[in-house]
Amino acid sequence: MSSDLGSTTKHNAREECYRYSQEQFMIEQPVAPGTYLGPVDTSAPDADKVPLLFQPFQIKDLVLANRVIVAPMCMYSSKDGFMSMFHAVHLGSFAVHGAGLIIAEATAVEPRGRISPQDVGIWSDDHIHKIKEIADFIHAQGSKMGIQLAHA
Asked: Annotated Gene Ontology MF terms (predicted)?
């Protein structure tokens, strides 16, 4: 296969996925998303202080860029437990807009424990690749990612 076309990898027995070097391209932001850019009115009292919401927050070794946290949402948008492009855009958009922590939706630890047949899962090693891909993107934006474990 030609190098400009990318490489072929198998994620599971049913699908073949093509990888292109352009897929890993990330845009460097001039200012980190979620950064406090200053007050609208600099003459206001305490205008030089960064609001608590935009200050870094640390829990043990975990440092969040700010205190904006996106709670998990049940999106019911996966097939066979796999995260998809929908999840990449949904969760990634919060990171691009500067949330300090994004928690992925209720993720089933086994198929029979799902809330719905469209729930995300981690009962198979095959699920890891897409979750890692989305987590890598979120981390590249300066945000952190968590996951809500679920068993209904």
From this structure: FMN binding; NADP binding; NADPH dehydrogenase activity
Q: What is the dihedral of CA 22, 75, 68, 24, to 10 degrees?
A: -10
Q: Rounded to the nearest 5 degrees, what angle is found at the Cα of 128, between the Cα atoms of 91 and 69?
A: 30
SS percent in the chain: helix, strand, coil, step 5 = 25, 25, 50
Positive/negative CA dihedral, 19, 144, 87, 30: negative
Question: What is the Cα–Cα distance from 124 to 14, expressed in whole angstroms?
Answer: 14
pLDDT in tens, 89-101: 999 999 999 999 9
Q: Which two tokens stand for residue 116?
A: 């719905």
The residue among 7, 10, 147 whose CA lies nearest residue 81 is: 147
State how far the alpha carbon of 142 is from the alpha carbons of 8, 66, 114, in Å: 29, 10, 31
pLDDT band at 1 (very low <50, low <70, confident <90, very high): very low
How many whole angstroms separate alpha carbon 142 and alpha carbon 28? 11
